[in-house]
Amino acid sequence: MENIRMIQLEDANPEQRHLLEQVQGAFGMIPNLTKALAASPAVLEGFLALGGAMNKTAFSPVQRELVAIAVAQANGCEYCLSAHTKIAEMQGAEEEDRSLARMGRVSGPVTAAAIDLARAIVATRGHLNSDAVAAAKAAGLSEAQVADVVGLVVLNIFTNYFNHVAGTPNDWPVVRIEEAIPA
Q1: Reduced to 3 states, what is the DSSP secondary structure of residue 58?
Q2: Buried b / exposed e across 10-35, counting CB within 10 Å, b at 16+?
Q3: Residue 68 belongs to what H/E stretch?
C-alpha cells in the first residue's frame, strides 16, 4: 500500500520538477522510488548526492549492484531487490552472480569480501567486531574499500527502509525475496 504519494512530473513544484528531471536525464525514466522521495525535495536531493558519491567508490558498477542486491535481500526489500537485479543485468553482471549475491556467494574474492562485509554490517546493525573488518582486509579489501562498503550499505539501507515506509509500488521486473537460493 502506497503510504507516501508519488510525485508525478506534471504535478511537481519547481524544486521537485528540477530533481525529477535530473533523474529522468540520468536514467531515461523516473523510477517510482524517486517519485516517492520527491515528496521531500531535501530527501531526494540527499539520495541523489549520496548515490553520486557512491558511484565514485573503488568498486565497479557491477560490484556496487551486487552489494545492493545482498543488502536488499537481507532487509527484505523487494523493490530494491528487483531494481538492483535489473540494473546489475544492464551493467553486465552474470545471472549466477546476481542470484548468488542474495546469499552472499559470488565469484571473485574482492566482490565476495565486500558482500560478506555488507551482510555483516546489516546483520549487526553496524556493530561489527574487529574480526569482521580484519577478515575483509585479509580477503583483499583496502581500508578505503571497507569505508566504501559502509557507504554502500548506508545508501541501500536508506532506500530499503524508505520503500518499506512509503509502500513504493514496484515498477521493475519483480524478483521475490522468498525465491532466494537457500544458504
Answers
A1: coil
A2: eebeeebbebbeebeeeeeebbbbbb
A3: helix 61-75
Rounded distance between C-alpha atoms, residue 45 and residue 23, angstroms: 10
pLDDT tens figures, 63-97 = 999 999 999 999 999 999 999 999 999 999 999 99
* Distance in angstroms (rounded) separating the CA atoms of residues 134 and 138: 6
Q: What is the CA radius of gyration of the chain?
A: 16
**Using one digit for the tens of pLDDT, what is the confidence trace for 7-47?**
999 999 999 999 999 999 998 999 999 999 999 999 999 99
Q: Which residues contact 78 (CB under 8 A, 6 or more apart)?
A: 72, 170, 174, 175, 176, 177
Tracing cell 536525464 back to the chain, one arrives at 25
> Which residue shows C-alpha cell 574480526?
131
Contact yes or no for 90/61 (Cβ under 8 A):
no
**C-alpha cell read off for 147:** 569505508
Q: How many CB atoms lie within 10 A of CB 68?
A: 27
- Rounded distance between C-alpha atoms, residue 72 and residue 5, angstroms: 22
Which set of grid coordinates corresponds to residue 155? 545508501
pLDDT digits (tens, 9 = 90+) for 165-178: 999 999 999 999 98
Instruction: Give this prediction's pTM.
Output: 0.94
